[in-house]
Amino acid sequence: MYASVRGYRAMDAEALIRKMEEEFVDRVKTVDGFVAFYVIDGGDGIVTSITVAETEAAAEASTVQAEHWVVEKVAHLVEGAPDVTAGEIRVRAER
Question: How many other CB atoms sit within 10 Å of the CB of residue 24?
Fold first, then answer.
């Protein structure tokens, strides 16, 4: 399993999160190897998205999808480029 974590500085976190839910979820779900997508509201304009994927290529594809989507749809809601961390999930615990 692999993950891509993207941290955004939002000018309007509520609007960004709403757009992610309404628009980006359907887009990222089309990535072959997609497993899950989460959004965290960290407060103070910090919004973090996490994509979990079966393969490294799928995690990378989700990042590319996110980059394009931000430019096309929500550039006015974020400051600068997101901080991106991507790689293999090395520790996993589930209930």
Answer: 22
Domain-embedded: residue 94: no
Average pLDDT of 70-95? 95
Instruction: State the Cα–Cα distance between residues 69 and 38, nearest whole angstrom.
Output: 16
Separation CA 95–CA 86 (nearest Å): 24
Specify the pTM: 0.93
Parent domain of 13:
2-88
Task: Give me the DSSP letters along 12-76.
Answer: SHHHHHHHIIIIIHHHHTTSTTEEEEEEEEEETTEEEEEEEESSHHHHHHHHHHHHHHIIIIIGG
- pLDDT of 80 reads 92
Distance CA(88)–CA(69), nearest Å, equals 24
We report the CATH number of the domain holding residue 25 as: 3.30.70.100
Quickly count: other Cβ atoms within 10 Å of residue 41's Cβ.
14
